[in-house]
Amino acid sequence: MRELAVVSGKGGTGKTSVASSLAVISGKAIIADCDVDTPNLHLVLAPSLVDSKPFIAGFTASIDKKACTDCSMCLQCCRFDAVDNSFSIDPLRCEGCGLCARLCPQHAITMEPKHCGTIMVSETRAGRMVHAKLFPASENSGKLVSDVRRRAGLEADADEIPLVIIDGAPGIGCPVNATITGCDYVLMVAEPSVSGIHDLLRLASLVNHFSIPAFLCVNRWDIHPEYTDTLEQEAERLSIHPAGRIRYDPGITHAHTAMRTIAEYDIPAAADVHALFANLQTYGVLP
Is the pTM of this model over 0.85? Predict the structure, then answer.
């Protein structure tokens, strides 16, 4: 089983469009949506839920009103303003540090495991999909990404599926580190702009740090051919192999509105993603 992570240095480059199209063309992959803060792969793959379980990470304080004597020790010591004047805990403010529980003279405060999100397994027309949703203001997105990848690997092993395609989070933060660590291959999706070049360099530095074989896809390449050439030149300088280009195609918007991937719609860009898939097979990235 091999893992291909599709990532980008910023949001809006078309990373999810590429990942979903590769999954549809493959027809024999487990799909993992590791953009747990703002997942959107479900918008084009229309998953049907099979299983779900809560994601528990960290702790939140809970005050036993019967044992509490209103001494205000918790109110004074909480640096996150999570305790209000009625000595109740605001779960959105509580960071789970446990200081209030440690200092409470009546031992009226306990630290409870925190329900931070949900991990789901669904069926889609492109194959089984593992995805998740992190609740607002919740932390540990990196841990949730690792749990999603772990579950995707188990699903692949159970069904003897040779490929996991990961739709990663944008940027270079903790969720992206958790997405690419230990992956077999990374596909970077970039756009031909000044910021696109800058984002590619940042992301390439991260990927090369982990010594992961990397490939480049330039989306909407024809809006600025000169910058596209620069992107591919920079990629080759950094030992990243250019693997394909996808043209600007207004039909992509119509495809997504119809909850279809680029590969499934009769538009010019469909040929580009099929060519990208073939190139990745040539490189040995895809089975």
Answer: yes
